[in-house]
């Protein structure tokens, strides 16, 4: 039963993410989510109680992977390995959670009015960890003296754009949807851009 419950929740979160991404929190109705997910409206309330809880679940479906993505930076001493893994993982999140990524982007762009404070605190702590590790590598002389903050922002922007601005990217590439090879090519390019541009060397 727990597996059935988990599967049903995943389906609801998936379609809720799509509507939240397209319409925003305020304009999205639970009835529309239920219709799109092909489940009875009471089931949505059974699993999530409120629309606010469901919105949080959508945010968590992408913020939790985003928080876990920085593990290589925290755990590895080699900046080439750590940043390569970080960039690859961030792109996989854009590939696997496109609608939830858009929801998160819209939330941030609007000043994060609905973002739970505990998630915001975790994201800030993660950012501070990444900056501290980049500063350590700079001091060790294994990467150029670049701005750790702006390097982090650049990686965020260049990886998340493949989800948040997928329409524009697909339009330029003249295709209906991005495939695995597109994300592999992006990972290779962005990794080399960061490693060569910041003169990063294996520790």
Automatic annotation (TrEMBL):
Keywords: DNA-binding. Signal peptide: none annotated. One of its GO terms (molecular function) is DNA-binding transcription factor activity. It comes from the Bacteria. GO terms for biological process: negative regulation of DNA-templated transcription. SUPFAM superfamilies: Homeodomain-like, Tetracyclin repressor-like, C-terminal domain. This is TetR family transcriptional regulator.
